[in-house]
């Protein structure tokens, strides 16, 4: 009898199911070792029944500081999945997920998170999050390398997840 239960467990671990197929047929999703999940226009493989919203976003190269995850169900119901919320992939009628840009995103200044509206922002707006001004501080953005100073007179495009550092300006003439 023990070998039968071991065989069933092995069969489940090797089983790969597509959520959309079961949702379209109105059938319950069976236990599986791998779930094929559609996120936006991409099909990804998930090796756990209850991943978090953040884990699903990561599968398509997105982060919760800039995007939200929305579960789509068979009967046109949608629900937002929070980053640390676990999603049961065997929920009846779950077809997959879509992502959406957040209007209020998170940026990081000096390693701390701050909310800000997406779009073009001034250096002064960003520095004001940490109680600083362009007159006394330089704002630097970290992108693919060391932080580089941003000109205070040009807009900064905010999409979410940007990393900034502020640095006191060195004083005056010699």
Task: Give an overview in words.
It is a single chain. A hairpin with a 5-residue loop joins strand 10 and strand 11. The chain is built from four helices and 13 strands. It has 174 residues and is of the alpha+beta class. The chain is 19% helix and 37% strand. It folds into two domains: 100 residues, Roll (Ubiquitin-like (UB roll)), CATH 3.10.20; 64 residues, Ubiquitin-like (UB roll), CATH 3.10.20.
Shape: elongated
Determine the N-to-C terminus distance. Answer: 87 Å
CATH topology of the largest domain: Ubiquitin-like (UB roll)
Question: Roughly what fraction of the amino acids lie in strands?
Answer: 35-45%
CATH top level of the largest domain is Alpha Beta
Number of domains: 2
Question: Structural class given helices, strands, pairing?
Answer: alpha+beta
Write down how many β-strands occur, each being a DSSP E stretch of 2 or more residues.
13
Identify the CATH architecture of the largest domain: Roll
Low-confidence stretches: 5-11
Order of helices and strands: HEHEEHEEEEEEHEEEE
Query: Sheet bearing the most strands, described?
Result: 5 strands, mixed
Mean pLDDT: 90
How large is the radius of gyration?
Answer: 23 Å
Helical proportion, percent range: 10-25%
Across the major sheet, the strand order is 8-7-13-10-11
């Amino acid at each position: 009898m023990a070998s039968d239960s071991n065989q069933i467990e092995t069969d489940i671990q090797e089983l790969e199911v597509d959520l959309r197929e079961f949702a379209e047929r109105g059938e319950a999703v069976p236990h599986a070792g791998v779930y094929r999940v559609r996120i936006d226009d991409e099909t990804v493989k998930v090796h756990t029944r209850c991943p978090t919203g953040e884990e699903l976003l990561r599968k398509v190269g997105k982060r919760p500081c800039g995007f939200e995850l929305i579960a789509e169900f068979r009967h046109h119901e949608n629900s937002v999945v929070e980053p640390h919320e676990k999603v049961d992939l065997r929920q009846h009628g779950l077809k997959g997920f879509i992502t959406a840009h957040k209007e209020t995103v998170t940026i990081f200044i000096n390693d701390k998170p701050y909310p800000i509206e997406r779009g073009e922002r001034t250096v002064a707006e960003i520095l004001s999050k940490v109680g600083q001004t362009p007159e006394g501080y330089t704002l630097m953005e970290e992108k693919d390398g060391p932080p580089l100073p941003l000109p205070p007179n040009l807009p900064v495009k905010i999409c979410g997840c940007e990393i900034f550092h502020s640095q006191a300006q060195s004083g005056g003439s010699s």
